[in-house]
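Appendix C reproduces, verbatim, an entry submitted by the partner laboratory led by Prof. M.T., so that reviewers can inspect both the input and the predicted structure.
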Amino acid sequence: MKRIVPTALTTVALLVPTSVLAPAATAAPAEAGTAITGTWKGQVFGDNGADAGYRARVRIVKRNGELRGRVASGGCYGVWRYRGRSNGWYRFAEVITRNTTGDCARRVGVKVRRDDAKLRVVWRERTSGDTATMLARKV
């Protein structure tokens, strides 16, 4: 019969919490599923009831503890100003700063959330109620 005798090294290893051994390994997967910061791109659908999509690129950063963003889509370029969070959505106000096509809505409400590895974006015009959506991938 073999007898297993725990050594001091084994005992110490058993007493050290896993968070001390590998903090990055345990923190990264949780953040990866919820973080909205970064650069995202995808196809926008439903704008003015259109079936065909157009490309959009969104960059969301966190500076001085506050989220903000930039958007470029279909000849419309603008900024996103953070408005808060509700029901799992991050809300922004989009303000167009450059309009190369002449058909950009100047101010639009935007909400975003993570959908697994993608970012779901919903735009809504305040006056008409028109909506557009994008399921973007991280660049």
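The chain is about 15% helix and 50% strand. Additional entries are available on request from the coordinating office.
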